Amino acid sequence: MRVLLQITRRNFPHHGRRFLSCKGAAAFSTQTKEIGAKANSQPLPSSTHNFESRFPGTATGTGCINEVDKLISNHEKVLLIADAAGFEPCGAAKYFTKHSEKVIQKLYSGKALPLEEVEEVYADIVQTPDIDKVTSIIAVGGGTAMDLAKIIAIALTNKSNCVDDILIDHKKGNSFELIFLPTTVGTGSEATSFAVVYKNKVKMSVDHPTIIPQKVILDPKLVESLPEPVVAATVLDALAHATESAWARKTTSESRSYSSESIKLIVSHLEPGTPNRLEAFQLASHLSGKAINISRTTLCHSMSYPMSALFGVPHGIACCLTLSKVAALNFASKEEDLGGLPLSHIQESFELLFAAYGVGSISELTKKITSILETLGVKTSLSDFGILKDDLPSIADKALTKGRSDNNPRKVSPDDVMEILVGSC
Fold first, then answer.
1. C-alpha triplet 367, 240, 271: angle, nearest 5°
2. Alpha helix locations (H) across 248-276?
3. pLDDT tens column, 20-29
4. Residues in CB range of 207: below 8 A, 6 or more apart
5. Helix, strand, coil proportions of the chain in percent (round to 5)?
6. What does the pLDDT look like over 312-363, one tens digit per residue?
7. Of all helices (H) and strands (E), which one includes residue 370?
8. pTM beyond cutoff 0.85
9. Which residues lie closer than 8 Å to 161 by C-beta, 6 or more apart?
């Protein structure tokens, strides 16, 4: 198996642990897990029993990674893009050794996707022997690895001179079969048509329907080695996706159904030791990804970007630090605040959210969101992450982003953002 390039930073940095209050959280296991044998487990809620029939191309359950064998057999060569930090602990590295003759392997260790690093990866890939024989791209990892695979797929399809070309021409699509194996429980990237790259520290998106994978493998064994702080931080991203999707301007009845199911799975499996907990979180993450693929995200995500970029707050946590305040702001909207949306949009959104969270009022919802963070061992205020009131203007200055904040149902001003930040500090 060929290793093309190994960059030295991690996909999910452990600096995030200093922001978490989980005591005794284990580090990534250094022991490779065996993947492939079916195991007995208690059933998940009935709504998940027909998951694979509802979503053809999505495989679930312990041992479903074995379906990759047949998929690889259909190709002369396959490009594998994986998270360097988690590839061996999750068991995937051992699994793919039997396919070493067919697999061209790329390990990436970045925690995000700055354009200059993506260009380096792409330049290395195009110079690899037999790359012209590749007809499928497999991604193993979290959102960074999956987004990288999407970007490389479009660039290779179009024989681009550089990745920057596809950021300019948004009509360029992908011709490779994509097979994604998520190894975290939050991003939902395996269910979306977009990927994120940072050009000059500015977040940019690649968005094309051809980068939704044809096959998704949700094998619980792939997430067994995750430390509890990483489980918490990533599942909170899924929770934010599902919650924001419910009230987004672009929400639909379909995306709301995914949101509701995702939230219910998360809130019913919060406690460590709950049967099928990680499998439930995997499914919830996938459902929330399908939700935001339709609706996109809103103000919480928009405000999270400067928190992560400037202060290193893990993305999922950054989204949820303002989630209760944004919920309260949206709930209090009057029709004149909604920029043309009917007030029924808010009423329908919160009727769904109250039911999914198991609460009866906005006060109970905001308390429930706070209690979820506490149950997961996550601090609940900005000050817990070293963000002081004097820092808030620097966050507010970058908090309103096109495609996110303007997708919030209630139109928000810089003053609204500052009020939310002050209330979250």
1. 60
2. 253-267
3. 333 333 322 3
4. 170, 193, 194, 195
5. 50, 10, 35
6. 999 999 999 999 999 999 999 999 999 999 999 999 999 999 999 999 999 9
7. helix 362-375
8. yes
9. none
Q: What is the C-alpha separation between 368 and 357, in angstroms, rounded?
A: 8
Cross-strand partners of 136:
78, 177
Distance from C-alpha of 405 to C-alpha of 278, rounded to nearest angstrom: 31
pLDDT for the residue 204: 84
Q: Are 301 and 244 contacting, i.e. CB atoms less than 8 angstroms apart?
A: yes
DSSP 101: T
**Which two structure tokens, joined as six digits, stand for 337?**
């605040």
Closest by CA position to 82, among listed 165, 179, 226, 17 = 179
Whether residue 319 contacts residue 301, with contact meaning beta carbons closer than 8 Å, is answered with yes
Q: Residue 131 carries which side chain, given as an amino acid letter?
A: I
What span, in angstroms and rounded, lies between the C-alpha atoms of 317 and 110? 19
HEC string for 326-392: HHHHHHCCCHHHCCCCCHHHHHHHHHHHHHHHCCCCHHHHHHHHHHHHHHCCECCCHHHHCCCHHHH
Residue 27 burial (CB count, 10 A): 11
pLDDT digit string, tens, across residues 282-316:
999 999 999 999 999 999 999 998 999 889 999 99
**Tally of CB atoms within 10 A around 1:** 14
- At 251, list the tokens: 């929400």
